[in-house]
Amino acid sequence: xxxxxxxKPDFGLVKVLFDQPGEQLLVESSAMVAxxxxxxxxxxxxxGLMAAAKRKMxxxxxxxxxxxxxxxxxxxxxVAPGPEGDVVPLELNGSYExxxxxxxxxxxxxxxxxxxxWGGAKGFFSGTGFFLLKCGGQxxxxxxxxxxxxxxxxxxxxxxxxxxHVVAFTSGLDYNVTKxxxxxxxxxxxxxxxxxxxxxxxxxxxxxxxxxxxAFVHPFRPVKSSNN
Length: 228
Fold this sequence. Notes:
There is one protein chain. By secondary structure, this protein is mainly beta. It has a single domain, classed as Mitochondrial biogenesis AIM24 (Double-stranded beta-helix, 4-Layer Sandwich), CATH 3.60.160. Helix content is 13%, strand content 46%. The protein is built from 4 helices and 18 strands. Strands 3, 5, 6, 8, 9, 10, 11, 12, 13, 15 and 18 form an 11-stranded antiparallel sheet that branches. It has a 4-stranded antiparallel sheet with strand order 1-2-7-4, with no helix packed on it. About 10% of the residues have low confidence.
């Protein structure tokens, strides 16, 4: 399987070229843009009902996912996320896992295992929710986010990122959710809470936040006057 990343970072798109019959790609629901007419598609609950429901309720992913299977060499498949933004490809080799923020998963090879990971009480206060999606195994993995995505290699000094801008991080990192400064900064700076990452690994951050966009456009919403 070969793939090409197009229209990054504003309108990320993955163009997949299958090398041989039987190659497969697991794709998040509604993410297919186009495909060769002979590429087969099967919709199912990956891992059974309980596993699919767990990923839906705890990891923010769809219960049903689509598996695309090539029937001949050279067939193509195009996939893209729903929101405007970037897509990152990774080739997992089994030596590490990647934790994805809720809703960041786009597609992967069937050999990539998807599961949820408890985030502890710290997840309640962060924009990542209670659970993260844990991706391990081997093969290509594609994840996405609203806005552009940048990779940061975290070293001994750690790294601080706003909770709304965390997209993914490798299993060599852990984090604590805390305020960026004192109480005054927490309530008056507009920065809120941050993730303080420590350990050694890679962190992917987004250049935009959907929550920040919603807050920006809220004052401009038309409001109907009440006739009562």
